[in-house]
Protein: Pvc16 N-terminal domain-containing protein
Organism: Filimonas zeae
Amino acid sequence: MIYESLTCIAEELNEYFRIRLKIPEEKVLLSSIVNPDGTIALPGENKIALTLVNIEKEPSANKTGLTNSPSVSLTLQVMFVVYFSSNNYSEGLKFLSLIISFMQQKPVFTRANSPALHEGIEKLSVELETHGLERMNNLWAMIGAKYMPSALYRVRMLTYNAEVSREYRPVITGSAME
């Protein structure tokens, strides 16, 4: 459900940019910020990475279902990282402002207002997080990248239980023998 949640948010933001800015390309990509070797993970410049930073268990939200397997509700910390070339820095800041504006206008994603939201997800609520410079410095050090303009959000309530969770397997096309 993590993949489905973040994909829905990225798709909605890309649609928002298409309508508002009349741009055909996707700017928001579900991506890590850096590769294991330390290089930038985004394909090309002038993109926005939506990346998972942390997963937390909601302590007050644990429930036991009708079976022996308990449900667990999760909060995701995600970051929108603006990766624009130095000569497009101001353009990147405009996109970051639009992301914050979009999230303020739509703090809750439901199937009623977000048809692409996976049927197993009742709702997602998003909230901007603010941290001091020291904590942000620690976060960027943990990621292994130099600071880039970004916004950190808390995405609540993904509820997992054994009956609902399914394994995701991508479709494989072609053959290794070809």
